[in-house]
Amino acid sequence: MFLKNFGWSFAVTAAALLIAMVYGGPQALILCLILGILEVSLSFDNAVVNARILERMNPFWQKMFLSVGIVIAVFGMRVLFPLLIVGITAKLNPVEAVNLALQKGDPHTPGTYGYLLHEAHPQIAAFGGLFLLMLFLDFIFEDRDIKWIKALEIPLAKLGKLEGASMVVGLVALAVAGLLSGEHQGIVLLSGLLGLVTYLLVNGLGNLFDVDDDDDVDFDDASAVTHSGPSSAAKVAGKAAFMLFLYLEVIDASFSFDGVIGAFAITADPIIIALGLGLIGAMFVRSLTVYLVRQGTLDEFEYLDHGAHWAIGALAVILLVTISVPVNEVVTGLIGVVFIGAAFAGSVWRNKKKVTAAQGAESPEPVSANSK
Questions:
Q1: Distance in angstroms (rounded) separating the CA atoms of residues 85 and 35
Q2: pTM
Q3: What is the tens place of the pLDDT at every residue in 199-236?
Q4: 3-state secondary structure of 148
Q5: What is the CB neighbour count within 10 angstroms for residue 327?
Q6: Which domain holds residue 15?
Q7: Cβ atoms within 10 A of the Cβ of 335, count?
Q8: What is the pLDDT of residue 221?
Q9: How many other C-beta atoms are found inside a 10 Å radius of the C-beta of residue 72?
Q10: Which residue has the higher pLDDT, 361 or 192?
Q11: What pLDDT, on a 0 to 100 scale, did the predictor assign at position 210?
């Protein structure tokens, strides 16, 4: 099962490292490997959230996620997106943007590809931060039967009964980020609002379709799909699955912002970034996602959903903070790993308690001598 899910990822990793070696020697190979590890460490929470959505899709759309989706992830977000941002920022046409990227200029030197991408960080962070923050808030404000961090999740669920609570908190967070962004205030507010609108649009696209005609599933909106388990639900197909596919790609794009920006702290070479972040990192994240789905891990370890969404909330806050204060990418990656690790450990402990309680309920009462 392990090789079935991760075999292609190891094969692609070997090919990417070989290409890096031929392209730039041992140094390029090491940088490529570092970027791949960086992307995977930053994306554990991404894989858990993706898995919760992917498990609702039928096999055809799961394959689409692994084929078309990987092309979008590698070339769309890790290659074309940075070029698009630099082109818009520097008012360059596509050919000029590619030529600038291939020059591999120092990110600290004004006018270089890496420098221009870093200059665009405030608007990227505001867009991605608001999108992910809304995803976290909609999850944590819902009153759930299973609660992980009860001291926080119980009062937050009560707060969620307030109509539009997530919208209010999101707008307040954007206002604070805008106030602290100095000269970038205007672009930060605009980008954050676009992130908010994108979330609401993508999250509500399910309402445009009568999904019952496709799969006999009661499906009111896309947000419900991200939070419901697969055990009792039919696999969605047709228009519903297509909308979930788009939702997956937008979420994946939002998660990749910090990795794309952080990569330029390691190298300004777009080829190495594409090999490390795109081929190695994106492939392993997708393999991990499919592994979680096929193993039923999210149902077996019930706190993983919570840990992933708390990691998303932390990442959203970090993205908004980095608009005005630099945060090391290692911190960003470790926070996600810590939340996922803690949620996994908590799930194991919860499962042991359930087994112990079941065994205690099944054991017969001892018969005392006086009862004879």
A1: 21
A2: 0.71
A3: 888 777 655 543 444 444 333 343 333 343 444 445 66
A4: coil
A5: 15
A6: 2-352
A7: 20
A8: 40
A9: 18
A10: 192
A11: 39
| Sign of the torsion angle spanned by Cα atoms 163, 166, 169, 171 | negative
Of 314, 124, 141, 339, which is closest to residue 223 (Cα–Cα)? 141
- Axis-axis angle for helices 81-90, 238-263 (nearest 10): 60
- Has residue 359 been placed in a domain? no
Helix or strand (DSSP H, E) at 211:
none
Residues 6+ apart with CB under 8 A from 126: 174, 177, 178, 187, 188, 189, 191, 192, 195, 319, 320, 323
Helix (H) or strand (E) segment spanning residue 206: none
Evaluate whether 86 touches 116 at the Cβ level (below 8 Å). yes
Identify which of 38-52, 175-189, 252-266, 314-328 has the greatest average pLDDT.
175-189
361 within some domain: no
Tell me the CA distances in angstroms from 191 to 82, 187, 213, 335, one per residue in order.
16, 6, 37, 25
197: closest CA among 209, 205, 207?
Answer: 205
Structure token pair of residue 317: 């806050």
Calpha distance 7→145 (Å, rounded): 37
Extract the tokens encoding 183.
């000269």
Q: Name which of 45-49, 232-236, 294-298, 304-308 the model is least confident about.
A: 232-236
135, containing H or E segment: helix 121-140
Q: For residue 135, give the nearest of 222, 19, 63 by alpha carbon.
A: 222
293/271 Cα distance (integer angstroms): 32
Q: Of 229, 220, 363, which Cα lies nearest the Cα of 293?
A: 229
Residue 57's CB is within 10 A of a number of other CB atoms, namely 24
User: Who contacts 228 (Cβ-Cβ below 8 Å, separation ≥6)?
Assistant: 52, 56
Amino acid at 165: A
Does a structural domain hold residue 366?
Answer: no
Total tally of structural domains belonging to the chain: 1
Residue 162, pLDDT > 70, answer yes
Q: What is the pLDDT of residues 67-91, one digit of tens each?
A: 787 777 767 777 777 777 777 767 7
DSSP code of residue 266: T
Q: Is residue 19 part of a domain?
A: yes
